[in-house]
């Protein structure tokens, strides 16, 4: 199979104060997120002038990957400009007939994988004679992803010597969504199990035997249960246990976007300061040259059919064609609570 382009598919974020509310409406349309939560998240964005770092980070990552590929790279988002529908129309006009898709999420699950398939499907439906789109696999267990986080943990931990607790964090999702993650035959929970596995791989590479896996950025109505504990609550628990320093590794993300710079670098860091806890935060892979290499490797692996370089026993999943699920009923969207 040959491909004419790579589509870099991401979440999108606002680029000025007037973008914030319409962006949030796009993200939460039909998802039962209470308006009070939206007001709160709007304040987080406005705290940074209404600009999320995510689009600039994606553009920088694309600039780093382009020289490693012999394909043009296009950038499209789910929730904000450049919207993937528009990007796909441009690709079609440029003569692209078949493209690979790199989603900026390493994991399975509805929000982290299947929703990007829905984006592919929606974009193709919006473009007559749309190019064929083949999404690259999940990469949470790729050695380059793990190495990059392991080095980032080591440098964040430098001020503390060996005296720190390592805490991994990923975006929380509703328990029902996690239970539905992966093909039903696998028993669900593919998202939280992959997060646990990636954390184990990074911790073992760093040589840390004991660590925690916690969650962040919970949304949705309070009566709906989500993955817990929350990172900020967990700092209290660690403090009460006599922990002196914490190194937080945002294993669930590929770049320092708003969920990282607000929920970790602002909220969690402030709480740590109140408690007198030393606090370090490991960098995400986006700024590491190995991230560009990772993308180039995923492309090469797909094109050549070479065996997947991966460190876990999880099946290589998430490679989908035109947004069709990679296995029947894989990572079904959770049923949304009525509002
Ligand atoms: C698993 C997961 C990832 C990781 C996988 C991936 O990276 O794709 C992720 C990433 C991100 N989430 C982001 C932002 C938001 N997520 C929200 C809401 C939600 N996220 C969810 C899950 C995830 N989200 C869920 C289950 C919801 C509830 C509503 C729904 O069921 O969809 C909301 C609504 C307001 C609120 O927080 O309540 C916002 C603004 C940004 C961009 C940050 C920026 O602008 O820099 C990024 C990268
Ligand atoms: Fe999110």
UniProtKB/TrEMBL annotation:
Gene3D superfamilies in the record: 3.40.50.1400
* Entry coiled-coil feature ranges: none
Do you know which InterPro entries this protein is assigned to?
Answer: Ferrochelatase (IPR001015), Ferrochelatase_AS (IPR019772), Ferrochelatase_C (IPR033644), Ferrochelatase_N (IPR033659)
Entries under CDD domains matching the protein: Ferrochelatase_C, Ferrochelatase_N
**Chief site of localization:** cytoplasm
The protein's name: Coproporphyrin III ferrochelatase
Stated role: Involved in coproporphyrin-dependent heme b biosynthesis. Catalyzes the insertion of ferrous iron into coproporphyrin III to form Fe-coproporphyrin III.
The pathway to which it is assigned is:
Porphyrin-containing compound metabolism; protoheme biosynthesis
**Any single GO CC term annotated in Swiss-Prot or TrEMBL for this entry:** cytoplasm
What family does this belong to?
Belongs to the ferrochelatase family.
Q: Which reaction does it catalyse?
A: Fe-coproporphyrin III + 2 H(+) = coproporphyrin III + Fe(2+)
Q: Where does Fe-coproporphyrin III bind?
A: 52, 116
Positions annotated to bind Fe(2+): 171, 259
**From the UniProt record, which GO molecular function terms apply?**
ferrochelatase activity; metal ion binding
* Keywords in alphabetical order: Cytoplasm, Heme biosynthesis, Iron, Lyase, Metal-binding, Porphyrin biosynthesis
Cell compartments where the protein resides: Cytoplasm
Q: Which GO terms describe its biological process?
A: heme biosynthetic process
Q: Which organism is it from?
A: Saccharothrix violaceirubra
Q: What is its EC number?
A: 4.99.1.9
């Amino acid at each position: 199979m040959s491909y004419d382009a790579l589509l870099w598919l991401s979440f999108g974020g606002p680029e000025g104060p007037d973008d914030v509310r319409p962006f949030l409406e796009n993200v939460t349309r039909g998802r039962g997120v209470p308006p009070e939560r939206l007001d709160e998240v709007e304040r987080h964005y406005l705290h940074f002038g209404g600009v999320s770092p995510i689009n600039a980070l994606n553009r920088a990552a694309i600039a780093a990957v382009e020289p490693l590929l012999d394909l043009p790279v296009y950038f499209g988002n789910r929730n904000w400009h450049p919207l993937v529908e528009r990007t796909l129309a441009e690709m079609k006009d440029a003569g692209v007939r078949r493209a690979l898709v790199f989603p900026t999420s390493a994991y399975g699950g509805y929000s982290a994988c299947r929703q990007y398939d829905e984006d592919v499907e929606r974009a193709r439906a919006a473009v007559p004679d749309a190019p064929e789109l083949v999404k690259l696999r999940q990469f949470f267990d790729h050695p380059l992803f793990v190495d990059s986080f392991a080095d980032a943990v080591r440098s964040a931990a430098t001020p503390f010597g060996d005296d720190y607790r390592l805490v991994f964090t990923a975006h929380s999702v509703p328990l029902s969504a996690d239970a539905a993650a992966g093909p039903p035959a696998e028993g669900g929970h593919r998202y939280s199990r992959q997060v646990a596995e990636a954390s184990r791989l990074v911790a073992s590479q760093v040589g840390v035997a004991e660590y925690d896996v916690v969650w962040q950025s919970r949304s949705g109505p309070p009566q709906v249960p989500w993955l817990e504990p929350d990172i900020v609550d967990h700092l209290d628990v660690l403090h009460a246990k006599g922990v002196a320093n914490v190194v937080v590794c945002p294993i669930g993300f590929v770049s320092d976007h708003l969920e990282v710079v607000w929920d970790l670098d602002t909220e969690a860091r402030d709480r740590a300061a109140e408690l007198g806890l030393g606090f370090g935060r490991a960098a995400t892979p986006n700024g590491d040259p190995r991230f560009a290499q990772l993308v180039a490797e995923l492309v090469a692996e797909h094109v050549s059919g070479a065996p997947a370089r991966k460190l876990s026993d999880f099946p290589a999943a998430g490679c989908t064609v035109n947004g069709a699920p990679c296995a029947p009923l894989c990572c079904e969207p959770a049923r949304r609570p009525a509002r």
